[in-house]
Amino acid sequence: xxxxxxxxxxxxxxxxxxxxxxxxxxxxxxxxxxxxxxxxxxxxxxxxxxxxxxxxxxxxxxxxxxxxxxxxxxxxxxxxxxxxxxxxxxxxxxxxxxxxxxxxxxxxxxxxxxxxxxxxxxxxxxxxxxxxxxxxxxxxxxxxxxxxxxxxxxxxxxxxxxxxxxxxxxxxxxxxxxxxxxxxxxxxxxxxxxxxxxxxxxxxxxxxxxxxxxxxxxxxxxxxxxxxxxxxxxxxxxxxxxxxxxxxxxxxxxxxxxxxxxxxxxxxxxxxxxxxxxxxxxxxxxxxxxxxxxxxxxxxxxxxxxxxxxxxxxxxxxxxxxxxxxxxxxxxxxxxxxxxxxxxxxxxxxxxxxxxx
Length: 357
Ligand code: 1HN
Description:
Structural class: alpha+beta
Helix content: 10-25%
Strand content: 25-35%
Number of strands: 21
Bound molecules: 1-hydroxynaphthalene-2-carboxylic acid
Strand order of the largest sheet: 1-19-16-21-14-13
Radius of gyration: 23 Å
Number of domains: 1
Shape: globular
């Protein structure tokens, strides 16, 4: 048996002149706030299970395209904000920022770099590209493109239809750390070599014999674009290899180190077989689910408090940490493919990562 948590003294229990004397000296008594900052067994979670339907957002995003020229926006984004944090905080969870970005044919979002790490998950449209650190990355549906901390990036669009992608950043954390800023730059020179071509096969690393022939090798982020067709094929290969395996998941990793692709947030793709229900282990990090193909219902919470979101293609939801999450693919014939972002690398580095079941 754990010892019970006793009631602690309240601010109102203290004489007003004493509290005033403390305040004048920039002092605060801990005990009235101790339970709030250190609650028993489980953190107080501001992150609320929340879903955003693409069909609701797309018309508003297209309208933003009419209302605000790219020159006046730099990045034309509607932020997926969690009401549990307050909408003006622009955060999906403690560490995760989500936004849907629109680029219209012929537009150019100028080059900049910043301290927060970003990725883009392409939702819709063909013909756009992002140049990251001199590497031109074409954007097709389901592709994941990294723009890690400090790397120059700009977006352009040579196609004929609007392109939309999901931005995932660790902005809330980096901003909280008072470490968030940006620098504007010039249009980038394109450099030879593409990480997505050099690292096409798992375990087979490009090995330039001459140092001057190395493209991105030796760079902190050797692979910047993860094509959906490769990720999808990897999941199907896993499914064929292990028909008995419940959870089919891949991690977007740095191919040179095997570590997570970026330092703070983790990125994954998960496949649900037709008719499959998958109860995820309860873990400390918050998670984001975004449907690339098919559909899934996401149950977040326990018992009467469970919330169910029925997600179709391009829909997104988030779930707080320390909370049961269960995924279900209701289709009897089609697999579902889900992009996941979470706070695992951050929790691991901080030493607070937990699995509870
Ligand atoms: C940013 O640089 C981009 O480069 C998108 O496309 C979203 C949200 C907050 C801060 C910087 C981009 C962003 C962002």
